[in-house]
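Course assignment 3, question 2. Fill in each field.
Student: A.L.
Task: Predict the tertiary structure for the chain below.
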Amino acid sequence: DEADRVVLVTGDTDIAPVVRAAKRMYPNREVCFAFPWNRKRDELAALAGRCISISKEAYRAHQFPDPLVIGSSTFNKPPTW
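Answer field:
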């Protein structure tokens, strides 16, 4: 009882059985999908209360800086990003 809604960022249909089970167990909770760019799946969309598609431009606008420094660790983006 700690969440009324969950947003799953995935386009993988492997999760469909889990979502069906969660909806049976918690019928008053909402499941939403945020589909990665070019990954919308009709099967998942049919299970969702609502869904959105993340645009290619949103990926560019919301990336971490390069390099990303967390404590003593430094992370660099792959060149193809």
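Instructor remarks: The mean pLDDT is 92. The first strand starts at residue 5 and ends at 9.
Grade: pending
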